[in-house]
Predict the structure.
Amino acid sequence: MRNIFKDKNKKKIFKASSYFLFSIFLITNFLFFISKTSNSSFVPSVFFSEVYEGEPIAHAGTFITDSDENLETSIISFLNELYTTRNKSFTTGNVEELYKFYDTAQTFSSYSLKHEFKRIAFLRDWASERNVSFKNIQSTPKITSIKEKDNTYDLTLSEEYKFDYIYNNDPENVNSFGISLIHTLELKKFGNSFIVTKDYYQDCFEGGLGKYDFDLTEKNIPLTRFKAYNLNFKINPTPENSSTYNREAAVDYADKYSGISFTTNLDSKYNSNYYIYVAGSGNCTNFISQCLSDGLEGGGMPQDKDWSYKFNESKGVMASETWVNSEKLLDYLLSSNKAFILFSGSFDEILDSMSKSSNEIKLGDLVIYKQGDYIEHSAIITGFDNSGYPLVNSNSIDKYKVPFDLGWSNDNSEFYIVSLK
C-alpha cells in the first residue's frame, strides 16, 4: 500500500511540476514577445480590430430583421428630430427642447445629455472667438445594427454632420466641412416614440470640453468667450510638387477617402487596399501614411525599411510602427530629413509665431496633435477657407476640411504644423 501511495504522490508531484514549468514557459515567452514587440519595427495587423460598418453591439438580445422596417423608420424619425433640435441649439444656445429626448432620472442618460450641453457650449464659444456664425448644421443618421430586448433597443449608427459657416464680416461666402461620429446608442420605448437611455461615442470636440459643466437645470447655454482672434494665417494654397512628394495628389487622396459620404460617390468609405486600424493609435496615422505614400492615387513618397506597409499571403499585413503611430511618424519624418516643423505650440502661440515668420502653411502639410505629454493624432491640410483658415482631413473620427484646431482647445493642447520637403 505504501508503494502505491508513494507512486500516486510522485505522479501528483510530477503533474504539478509539469503544470508549473509549462506556466513559467508561457509567461516567459509572453514577456519575451511583448519586449520584442515594443522594439519591433513592424506591427502585425492582429494587434488591431478591423472596422465593420455592421459591427454588432455586445449585448444579449435579438437582431432586428428586414421585416422590422417600420421600426427602423420610426427610430430614424426619432433621431432626425433629436439631431435637428440639438443642431439648432448649437446656433441658438436654447436647450429646453432637448430634455424631452432623454431620461434624466437615469444616470447614463443624464451623462449623455450633459455631454451634449458641453458640446453646444464649446462650439458656440469656438465660433465666437473666431468671429464666425454657423448658418446650417445637418446630421444624417445611418443605422448599422439594431438589437432588441424588452422594449429596449441597442444600436450602432453613424451620424454624419455637414456644417456650413460664414465669417461675420463676410456673410456672402459660405464654408462647409463634414464630420462622422459612430454612436453606441440605447433607446427605450416611450409611448408612441422612444427616449435615449445611453449614448456613447468618440467625440470630435472632446479636447475642448474640459472647461464646461452643467447640472441639467439649464434652459440656455450662454457664451463664455467673447474675445475674437485676429486670424492672419500665412498660407500657400498652390505649392509646387516635388520629385518625391506630390502634394496635390496627397490632398486628392485625403478628400476621396476621408470617409465623409457627401463629398464622394464611392461605395466604400476607405481604400480597400489597406487595412483599417481601430486600436492603439487608431486609423489616423495609417490614413496619413497612405496619403503621403500611395503610388497610384496619393503623394507617392517612397517607402523605406523604417516606414512601410506590406502584405503577404503568409503573414498578412505588416505595417511599421512609423506607419501607424503619430509620434513615431513625426520622429521618422524629422530624423530622415523629409520634413521640418513650421510652427508649434498652443493655438495662441502658433498665431504669434506666424506673425513673426516668413514660413507659409501649404496644402499637403501635416498637423500633429499633442494633448498633455502625449502625441495623440495626425491630420493632413487639404484646404483653406475664405479667410485662409487651414482645414484638415483625418480618419479614426472621419473629418473632411475641418478647421485644424476644432476640438483641441484645452489648456494642454499643442500643435505641430509639419512641412514636407
